[in-house]
Amino acid sequence: MIKAFKLAASFANPLEPVNRSVTSQSPHYFLTASTVLSLLTGMLVASCSGSRGNDAANTHRTIDGIMVACIAYKADCGVFPPEQPGLRALIDSPGTSAWQGPYLHGEIPGDAWGNAFKYSIVNGNPVIESAGPDGKFATPDDITGAKANR
To answer: 3-class SS at 118?
Structure first.
């Protein structure tokens, strides 16, 4: 009985981080990991949905995932990605020493209709826009993501 207790006591506490060096070296590790998981989840949902009626919802989810990546970028660098290079700064370092990305893996996702997003900074906050189903910006079917006020 005592032997079994000693064996059980020798296992690590499941609530303790296994590798303390990862969490101490990168305080934004979990934010970056959650960013990637959120984006991948959104992309998976978008790719599994065969209904055209869900295209706008899928585009909103993709924009939300990109916005989370922008917030993680700001947590590391102190500012949102600049308009130039734009969303590319989430994948490739723009030369900022505090950059700890990539914040998105692979390529920058497009909207549900295969169009690239438009990225801008308005009043210090990122705005991510889709041209919508007609593929033209500044028309009523455009989809704009929520602004990150952080």
So the answer is: strand
